[in-house]
Amino acid sequence: MPQQDIVKIAIQMPGAYPQLIQLDQKKPLSAVIKEVCDGWNLPGPDNYALQYTDGVQTYITESNRLDIKNGCILRLTKAPGRCAEDLYKGIQSSDSGVRCDSLKQLACVSTDVTFAQEFISRDGHSLLVKIVEDVDEAPLIMTHTLTGFMELMDHGIVSWENLSAVFIKKIASFVNANVLDVSIQQVSLAILESMVLSSSSLFQQVKQEVTLERLLSHLLVTNQQIQTKAMALLMALLQTAGDADRQELFAFLGKKNLRQYIYKNIIHSSASVGDEMAHYLYVLQSVTLNHLEPRMRMPLDSYNQDQRESLHALRQAAFETESENSLSHERRRSLCAKEFKKLGFSNNSNPGQDLLRAPPGLLALDTMAYFASRYPDAFSRFVLENSSREDKHECPFARSSIQLTLILCEILRIGEPPSETGSNYHPIFFSQDRLLDELFCVCIQLINKTWKEMRATQEDFDKVMQVVREQITRTLSSKPTSLELFKNKVNALNYSEILKLRQTERLHQEETLAPPVLELKERLKPELLELIRQQRLNRLCQGTLFRKISSRRRQDKLWYCRLSPNHKVLHFGDVEEDTETPPIESLQEKIPVADIKALLTGKDCPHMKENKGKQTKEVLDLAFSITYDMEEYSLNFIASSRTDFCLWTDGLSVLLGRDMSSECMRSELDILLSMEIKLRLLDLENVPIPDSAPPVPKPPSNFNFCYDLSQAEQ
């Protein structure tokens, strides 16, 4: 006989020594019980059953007996049918003590489905309904009755829809009562919740019978169980209601300031919120925010007069313009396009095109309009400040707003149904009536602040938005309880702080890596650094166009600099405006790499010293120079972007035999190391890796799917 068919267990019975047996899983359970009864000289083995002693004390049946493990301790007890019969009789006893004990035991054993089937087969659940409907029992007896009934119904053997209107009214009266035993109210709230979740017809009956005023008053009590069950019923009503009923419920709860109600009496007054309550707060947050989903899913309709007027009202709020009615059609169209461009729309001739993306759809227009009307000074300051910057450095308000609205929708999970196990609610939601709009107003100003901290250009838009997403997510994860607290925390979490946090987390992650992985990382570094060095030298060989900045701070002449293919000479010279990549022979000036003595950056550069105190921090961060021929001469550069600055200073460092030190190099090295380690650690058994790259696919027959950039520039 295979070993897995035998399980060694102990069986107990009150007043007798335990039996240690080897349970044969192939032997019928009735035969096993007979052997146990014979061991204790007990007649009538059919009246007995086996039951777990630990945890949920479930009856052992043929369907679950394979769950028994070696070392389990079981109990010999009354068979479910005999127990059900005894309790059914005890509940009908004229002795209140017997009734109370029977109902108390019923509440405990009804959690077992085998017992529940036996008790319900005797119509025991109807007996409990009759007690609730017809009898005014003592509070303790009524509590046991309702608890037993709830446990029986939870098995789904009997439909909730079979309950009478009288029973529903009686349960609702327990909830509506001003003075009643809290245990009765607690289980009554749970019964009503199950009714609501079971069918739409019961939803209507419960909605008619339960006083919402009284339901809200249960949130004021100090008993957390009552608060939680009241919240559970409220969420069940909201989740199962049809659109019309849900709107009615939200209107009522809005008048009663439900969010502030919860914030004051549950979140703010409690030292901690229990897991069950946290789930219901999360559900309320989710259901409420999902009211915004239709606007989020709806793109702008260019034929909708109200939507067009909202778009133009946004433009007019940003710019004080002359009376447009007196202008010709062409002049007005040109003026609108110019102002929409300043406002940050990509398609300035038809800005509605920017709002065709759904999500965020019309929700983005709503948030922009709210910001413009709620905080007009901040709105005007944002738009005008960026209108005065150079085109490449301006932070586009409209484009940023559309992307920010999408980010907030994703963070707040708008449009996603609430999870059955979710509990991640935001306390700030309950202190604000218009959470999305108010968060937007704080975060759109945060974007402008972060944009300046990162010295971003249009090319850095996605990078800035990633940082802003991280700032918002990190701040919300700290559970701020008010908008002011969120504002202070998110503004304190500037770009430099984000970089520090990322570095700290990366170092912590490295510390947790296994020693072989760290060793592999160190072995890979030299190879990857050499790859970056070659890329930098190749970039210098391609060359870059630089601008000369005059003493009057006017951009005038252009010049080009590139490294010779043999990496021995720097060629440079003036070029015309429309020059792309001049041939190396056309660059008349040259400096042998061997003559270069030093690489200088920032305020140490000669051309920065000459204009000390006159250069902006932005220019200082992009300036670098090389000195040559005994350091008497210098070639001075001002890069057009931080990327070009990093590429050239790294490349020149390589030529001088020094280590590269730019932030771009560190970032690229981290990316390459991460990718290489992941590839090395992949389980590639029986997966052939080609020696050469796969062929590039043939181009498509047409390019009609491409976006026409010329439209955005008009």
Automatic annotation (TrEMBL):
Residues 538-657 form the PH domain. The keyword Zinc does not apply. PROSITE patterns: ELMO, PH_DOMAIN. Keywords: Apoptosis, Phagocytosis, SH3-binding. It holds the Pfam family ELMO_ARM. GO terms for biological process: actin filament organization; apoptotic process; cell motility; phagocytosis. Residues 306-476 form the ELMO domain. Involved in cytoskeletal rearrangements required for phagocytosis of apoptotic cells and cell motility. Acts in association with DOCK1 and CRK. Was initially proposed to be required in complex with DOCK1 to activate Rac Rho small GTPases. May enhance the guanine nucleotide exchange factor (GEF) activity of DOCK1. This is Engulfment and cell motility protein 3. It comes from Coregonus suidteri. The lineage of its organism: Eukaryota, Metazoa, Chordata, Craniata, Vertebrata.
